[in-house]
Design goal:
The protein has helices at about 1-15, 20-30, 35-45, 50-85, 105-115, 130-135, 170-175, 220-235, 285-290, 310-315, 325, 330; strands at about 120, 130, 155, 160-165, 180-190, 205-215, 240-245, 250-260, 275-285, 300-305. It is an alpha+beta fold and about 350 residues long. 3,4-dihydroxyphenylalanine binds near residues 166, 168, 280, 281 and 303.
Length: about 350
Amino acid sequence: MKEKINQYLEEVKAFNAETYDQLEQFRLKFLSKKGLIPALFADFKNVAPEERKEMGQLINGLKKAVQEKIVALKEKLDSTTETKSSGYDLTLPVEAPLGTRHPLSIVRNEIIDIFSRIGFVVSEGPEIEDDFHNFTALNFPPDHPARDMQDTFFIEKDPDIALRTHTSSVQVRVMENTQPPIRTISPGRVFRNEAISARAHCIFHQVEGLYVDTDVSFADLKQTLFYFARELFGEHTRIRFRPSYFPFTEPSAEMDVSCNICGGKGCNVCKYTGWVEILGCGMVDPNVLSNCNIDSTKYSGYAFGMGIERITMLKYRINDLRLFFENDMRFLKQFESAL
Ligand code: DAH
């Protein structure tokens, strides 16, 4: 019996468990009802009386060794599986990617920067607007299609409250609260009831510009936007104006820049015209000035509005608008080094 116990003791000492299952098998082997240690105790009755004391101590020693082994191995398994079970080693140093600016923020900041160098200040207005600031003050006739549910997300009817459809609403708020000279740009989110596609989204971003003072002319508008286009797209950029219509400006125009991708030679981005449209603009309609309590006989002004998504797509050659809203790391990571 003594030999057996010593043999078991050797076995216990040498045992190691890689898994909880192995450890459980070990426990069962020695300690379960039909295990080796109860079997030794059962044999104990056959031990000669003079050997009982020694044998008793030996068996108890073995039992203790088994129990201690189990505790030690369990601790070891617990500490390694904590870090392994999730598939991550929680003790590794963190390798978190540094946050980067969203491309829309990069371009918005650049636009703000360019205009602030010539004295424009940033103004903001609410995203939830009333009819007056979004439409009426801006000279929209009552039956204008933009007032239709198809284009505008209404929150309440009579009086109409809607998500602003453009940042031109901020013009109105600035003019209501400030007398000229006014030089301001208003970046912000706008909302339109559009199906989402590679070219359209129901949420997008605009920057509105407004300049009101005595003797402001279309020439001032052109020169300012020329400066802007060159700063943003490079010094060889050319611009052209095409007559257009907006209710709040008269005359109105759309401005194109020479395609920065092919340099004006013609490519699929500019549809082989060499030009891409980037903004709408015009002289503030005198009705809009008077709607905002500005004396239209004394002051004149120009305004312009551009979509940040469109400009960002041109600048970074992005061909699907939806990428801006998906927050896919593979897309965002490409802007790591920008501003
Ligand atoms: N609000 C127009 C739009 O959302 C953009 C715009 C055009 C703004 C001409 C202007 C402007 O200030 O003069 O499409």
